[in-house]
Amino acid sequence: MPEVASRQHLGSIGAAIEAAIGEAAIAWDAIDGIGVTCTPGLVGALMVGVSAAKTLAAIHDKPLLGVHHLEGHIYASYLAEPDLEPPFLCLLVSGGHTSLIHVRDCGNYEIVGQTCDDAAGEAFDKVARLLGLAYPGGPAIDRVAREGNPKAFKFPEGRIKLPGGGFHPYDSSFSGLKTAVRRTIERLQEEKPDAPLPVADLAASFQEAVARALTKRALRCAEDLGLTKIAVGGGVAANSRLRSRLQEGVAETGIDVLFPPLKFCTDNAAMIGCAAVEHLQRGQVSPMTLSVRSRLALSDVGSLYA
Ligand code: KG4
Ligand code: ZN
């Protein structure tokens, strides 16, 4: 409910800013600029943040930096690895996105792979619902999967067939994987209506299929583009099996894989600050006329700066 979300933002933003400044114990003099998410999302909620940021920038005479939410996820790895330098490949896996992004430089992004239906996080949330687990589904599946056998069920890897034969090397489909889990649950319930569902085995096998698919595509993509670093971002970057599988996958390849600290995988403000710092260091600042956008292609982030 966009109207309710906007009102809640309005009711919380003052206290959130005060708490952040208080906890960081930082003086306004020590702050170099004000970064704020301005796209993509619900315009009402974005407007509350942008209006607050503009007001702070005007009062304290600081540069204003509008930030694309996905750019924040790309830069979350800087919180673990401040010296990370482009070029690198970003595997961005959140509730709304599953993308392989070639990061040539700050502001210079090319999406080279994506999902053609559900995002990885969305698949975790939908499969969790099928298994009767709580929302958000990702952390719930991650937790119960620890007790399960990842080889108990064989689920598809969500590859996309190309018209001329073969498969797309970097794109994925997670909707078919979710359907395969649903069909398996239906079959189990038909065969043994009174038996409890093997939730842990189903969760572990599903998680394994997602981790396998994402690892294979990210590695192939990094190798094809000649990139030696993969930065993972977005809520699904918190997934324990994706983290271990990618680490195993890059062993002996010469590729480094970087993850944000766990608490900075899901949405947070620190990652927006990291992206803002990168733009500020390049002398890019947003005009005070900065507006909000419900959508903006990642390749167009340059339009946010004067
Ligand atoms: O990046 P994020 O916080 O929000 C978006 O921008 O979408 O990602 C949220 C998504 C949810 O779908 C959630 O289920 C998933 O990230 N997620 C996880 C884990 N923690 C969060 N998925 C798998 N394993 C996790 N540990
Ligand atoms: Zn996000």
What does this structure look like?
The chain is of the alpha/beta class. The chain has two domains: 2-71 and 266-304, ATPase, nucleotide binding domain (Nucleotidyltransferase, domain 5, 2-Layer Sandwich), CATH 3.30.420.40; 85-264, ATPase, nucleotide binding domain (Nucleotidyltransferase, domain 5, 2-Layer Sandwich). It has nine helices and seven strands; from the N terminus they run H-E-H-E-H-E-E-E-H-H-H-H-E-H-E-H. It has helices spanning 2-24, 43-60, 69-75, 120-130, 137-145, 175-191, 199-225, 240-250, 270-281; strands at 34-39, 64-68, 88-93, 98-105, 108-114, 229-233, 256-258. A five-stranded mixed sheet has the order 5-4-3-6-7, with helices on both faces. The protein has a two-stranded parallel ribbon with strand order 1-2. The longest helix is centred in the last third of the chain and has 27 residues, at 199-225. The structure holds 5'-O-[(R)-(carboxyoxy)(hydroxy)phosphoryl]adenosine and zinc ion. Zinc ion binds at residues 69, 73, 94, 234, 267.
